Each structure stands twice: as structure tokens, then as C-alpha cells.
Amino acid sequence: TSPKWTRAIFVRNPKPRLLSAFLDKAVAHSKHFTGATCVSFAKVGGDYQYCVDHHEEFEFFLYNITTRLGKNVHWRSIYSRVDEKWWPWINYIANMENLSEDAEHFLRSIKSKVDGVSAWDRIGKTGWGDNERQCDSLGNSSFLALKDTRHKTNALDHMREYYTPKLERFVETHYADDFNNPFFKFNDTKLFD
User: Is the whole model's pTM more than 0.70, yes or no?
Assistant: First the structure.
């Protein structure tokens, strides 16, 4: 790996990330969840019908789905995705809670060696066109200022509705590698004493 390369990752605090995954995957897309995730749950020894009956319960999701299907990208710990030896080489770690601002800061930090123009000036100011999945055309708003709303859950607004002290401790314990990673610098999301 060259020290000239920029290696970046956007991370998200596990508490809102897990709640968001639950609200999106298990609640908003319930039919797909029971047809795919509950089937996968049964394949690793879980009870399919129990999963179908309880999949919209956050406690069931945390205790059963995130533990038995722990490699799923939506709820796997961020730290476990990258071999520990590479974390010091990642030279830009941004936070999903500040996505638009951190994306702008990041793109301003990347400059072309040919003409000195930053990635922000080249494409970041205008973002993509109306179809955020079509990268070929410029848009009218900055990069990542408009969000893909198909998976929007407003998880931060619902934390106390779903978390209990017991569930908060569970997440703090099972995602300790994310919370204790010295590179992440998550905002404090302590819900209960």
C-alpha cells in the first residue's frame, strides 16, 4: 500500500445503525425479511416460524438475527470488516451522521495532480443528476446532500422507543470493537444510565 493513496471509510455509530437496519430490513421490508432472512436464520439452526412471528421485535432482531447472521453487511461490526493491521493506514474516517459535511471536507482534501482541482470542485458541488445511481451527469445539488430515501428510517429520532437499558448494554458489549476503535470517534449516544 502506498502512503500516497487516500484510504477512506464512512462509519456509523452501531446504536442508530442497528436500529436503522432493523426498521428498514425487518419492518419496512417485512415480506422480504421473512422470505430471505428468516430462511437464512433457519439454515443456521434458528426456528423459521419463530423468526416470522417475532421479526418485527427489536429484541428478537438483536439477540437472534445479529448474532446468528453476524456477517450481514447491514449489522456486522464495521471494525471487523477491515483487518486490524490496516486501520492505521486508513487516513480519512468520516461519520455517516455528518455525511454531507464530511463528504464535502473529504472531497476538498483530494486534489488532482494534473490541474490541482479538488474532487469537490470537479463533481462535489453539483453532485450527480436526478438519478443518484447515474454518475455520468451532473446535478443541481452537492454530492450526498440529497439522500436516497428508499431506506430512510429516522433511527436517531426513535432510539428511546426501541432501546431499553438491557438492549443498549447488549449493543455496547457486542459492538465493543466499533465503540472502542480509537479511529472512529463516534458521538456519544448513551441513552440510559
Answer: yes
